Amino acid sequence: MSELETTGTRLRGLKAFARSVSLSNPERKRPCPNCTKIARIFKPQPRIARIVHPHKIHHWIASLAEFRNQTNCPTCLNVVQCLQKQVSGDSRYVNIWFVRYRWKLYVNIVSLDLTPVGPHKEHSVVGVAFDCLDRDWIDVKRVKEWAKFCDESHSGVCHSITDPWWTFQRPEQLYLIGVTRRCLVRGQEMDQYVALSYVWGDLLAPFQTDMYNFNALCQDGAFDIPANKCRLPKTIQDSMVLAGLLGKKLWVDRFCIVQDDLKHKPKMLKSMASVYANAYLTIVARDGSDDEFGLRGIATNTPRKSPFRFFDFGPDCQLITTVDPVNQTYKYDTRAWTFQEEIISRRKLDFVHGTVNWTCEKMFSTENMATPSDVPLRPNTHRLNILSYASLVKDYSKRQLSYPEDTLDAFGAITTIASKSMKGGIFYGLL
Ligand SMILES: [Zn+2]
Ligand SMILES: [Zn+2]
Question: How far apart are the CA of 5 and the centre of ligand 1, in A?
Answer without folding.
Answer: 26
